[in-house]
Amino acid sequence: MRTFLFSLLSLAATSWANLNVGEKSLFRRNSTGLSDVVTWDPRSVSIFGQRIFVLSAEIHPWRLPGDPKLWSDLFQKVKDNGFNTVSAYISWTLHYPSPNTNDGHGDFEAETYRDIQMFFDAVQEAGLWLIARPGPYIRGGFPGWVENIGGSLRTDNANYTAAWLPYLNTVAQLISKNQVTEGGPVILVQAENEFSASSVNSPYMQAVIDTHRANGVVIPITHNDQHSGENGNFSPDLPGPGQVNIYCGDSYPQGVNSWAQVQSVYYSFHEAVAFSNPLCLAEFGGGFLLNWGSEPLGGTGYEKYSLDLTDADYENVFYKDAYAQTAKIVSESSDVYSKPTRSFMPHTVDIYMLYGGTNWGQTAAPVSYTSYDYGGGINENRVAGPKMNEMRLQGLFLRVSRDLFGALPLGNGTNYTTSALIHTYKQRNLETGAAFYFLRQNDSPSTALTTTQLIVDTSRGTLTIPQFGGEITLNGRESKILVTDYVFGTNQTLVLYSTAEIMTWSTIDTTDYIIMYAPPTQTGETVLLFASEPTVDTSNAPNVNSTYSNGTLILQYLLDGIQFVTIEHDNSMLVSIIMDKTVANQWHAPVLPGNGAFGNYFSIGSNETVLVGGPYVVRNASIAGDTLSLTGDLNGTTTIEVISPSAVSRLSWNGADIQVHKTSRGTLTATVIVNQLNLTLPTLANWKVTGSLPEISPSFDDSNFTLADQTETNYTNLPPLAGSQVLYAQQYGFYGGNLIFRGRFNATGSETAVNLTVQYGFAGGYSAWLNGVFLGSSQGNATVSLSTNVWTFPDGVLEKGAENVLVVLQAIGDNSLSETSTNGGKEPRGIRGYSLIGGNTTFSSWKLQGNQGGAAGAPDTFRGYLNEGGLFAERIGAHLPGYPDDTWARGSPLTGFSQAGVNFYRTTFNLNVPDGFDVPVRLSFTPSAITSNFRVQIYLNGWQIGKYINNLGPQTAFVLPAGLIFRNSSNTLALSLWSLDAGGASIAGLEVISDGTFATALRFEEYQGPDYEKQKNLRPLGMTQTPIP
């Protein structure tokens, strides 16, 4: 039975003051029983006894390929733009290429994408908390070898337990030593991922939880349930094994192709299944996942989200609506209070993805392609877009508005405004009286301009605001959080109400500053309470009118640029800064660090900030003596304006002193000149080419290939359809990339064709040759994962009375990962059925080859086993810098070739970017005719950074990652071009393009992976092959 103590609220007619706020709702603060550093109740999570709103950015370590030092770039941008937490998957697949990697302790090689300790350290250095999400299952799946075990996955199957336990023991120990209780950043740990309770699932879930606890994890354990948290799987408030401490839901509320109505379900679901918890949205859509072929060719495909469906307007409407939502709300009229429910607004929200990054190599999940941009606020090339400005405005408000954390829902509907077109949520903190009104269009996709007034209950009675002229404007997809009885600053000034939103407030020296904003040309009205008339200076606020009457100071204004209103009262000073939203988008509030392990954490280690206007990014701020030192990025010549302590008279930007001027409004300004970077992006020319499919020749020496001699399989759900040997690549240690199969048979002369069923995964495909002669190709798409074909043998190809060789080149369309969304995670890759037509001949043997050495013995342990596939050029290391290509022919992928098969191309280029600049670049393909069926793998300095499928798409622009590209020395670019058509293929165009130029505080290093010379003894000898003409 659910038991809570509620306040008894007497009915009141006109004022919240008539509420007995002293009889406030009481809630037991929960802990794990192992530590009280992180606690929770229905209101919020608390850290060291302080309530916080967990606003989290989802970022995955490996999806920023190359130099892991650039994690700090992302985290500093996250912190600057209002977030206080990072949420991160840890991938079993990447750390355990085989069951016994490093004697069961896994691969966490230092200073690589697998260095999770370095990831944790970078999060903490930025002053961010961390939510660790180690699975064992994560979106994208399991290591390929896990599929080979007998029985089901993600159950209490003993074979599966033996598979995941070494991984989770290792990772849980790593998490344990990085918990906040140990001075680290980790505050929450998620068990499993989007998982449902059952008789076999729940014991497994309990074992995952027990494993964390046995390895020293004492902080709360969470779970993210699908369907917006409707079902209560593993909730602490429902019976059964596998209960976590804090239950969360996942939601992707936007329409896939058009704007959707907001979802008003979160707290009604939450109230039904997890009433003792704060509302937690563990994944809230920052964009959406796109599949192969889901959009027309062009860009990454994700522009559909970042520029439209999940743009800054989406954040403005959908995120604020999520903050506002409550459980089953008791309706409240404008003049009578009803008893509120015990519900509270969401206090843990994770934006998935804030930075999506890149699915390089074979790291993509089934159905998805190279770009994992997701439409996030920080794009795949690390550029913080307009969405981040909106998040900064929201995040800075949330971090200083602690009265909101304990606010109760008092109603929602269209009866709070004079226009029925506007929907309002109302919340009030019964302890302080502060209230929060969340306004949006009732029809949330509406693009109409709607004006209204809002009916609010305040300490001065029920008011219809604005009172003194003007209206509240919602221009289409716009939302506002408006406050009443909002107290801020050391002087405890009370905002009776404001029709402009509050961005943030800060006390600097003894002056309280508050920033309010609204879109340009809108009007605002803010009323503050003073016992006596203050002195008001509007000389720096030409569009502000000030009036004092009956204890209220009324500010009326037009939003145009930036305006400062200085107010003095009883030896205290406050400055109201009124900005239009385009200006507010350029202002930042960096934390001035305090002392100790958590000195850079707002509210825990420091409440000190400065206010900075102008820069694209502000990474860090500190004060020493009379100098304010700022580091950050600019997107051009910029005037910087700062509000800082009076002792500051000098300003340093990225280590260089800049001349400052003091303005009439008391700020310091300085102009930082960014000289134009006359960078000419390289032209890709001087290509060399070699053939890369010698295996189709009957005389090819395949003695080092793996003999496919297994006759049994644990893929009982998808058993072989024909043939005596099992040709599933996972059973032979190959988990990703291209595969080559060579089958032999002695022909009687009666054979006329071969019947093949190839299981290649979504968007995969294959080509087949007999004795070096092309038979044909077949391929799938985003919904087709296998093909069955009969290939007729051309006249004269079959060698009667002799050995014949059938070669199948297979492209695995997705990756090395086992994904439970298809066939319970048990879906093989390889030839599922094979038989000869005509006569009774069978294949005498099969051999196969994937990446050199397979997963367990890959020669390139630095880049990892997911970097390469089974093409000849990959196996010999021709994709690596320094490979000797002197004997290769001249030839360009733009010319291509005229037969089915594979050629491999190499060139070099220089970027020549000077220090102090960040120039994110991409490789852009001009699509060939959609009827041309070809596939390209892209290698940069030895790293496979993209897969292009001409007839499928949608991606045509591929990030050349800053962590891999050499800025001032020669880069090696390599392409494999595979034509699945008898007529061959060519690429219509290739060019290097840029996402922009930024003057930056970042210091880039050339991240040198092992070149060919360091690996040549681990690879086959690379004989030059004649390219396909």
TrEMBL record:
Leader peptide range in chain numbering: 1-17
Species name: Lentinula aciculospora
Domain Beta-galactosidase residue range list: 403-586
UniProt entry keywords in alphabetical sequence: Glycoprotein, Glycosidase, Hydrolase, Signal
Entry EC number(s): 3.2.1.23
Coiled-coil zones: none
Pfam families listed in its UniProt record: BetaGal_ABD2, BetaGal_dom2, BetaGal_dom3, Glyco_hydro_35
Keyword Cytoplasm among record annotations: no
Protein name (Swiss-Prot/TrEMBL): Beta-galactosidase
Reactions accelerated catalytically: Hydrolysis of terminal non-reducing beta-D-galactose residues in beta-D-galactosides
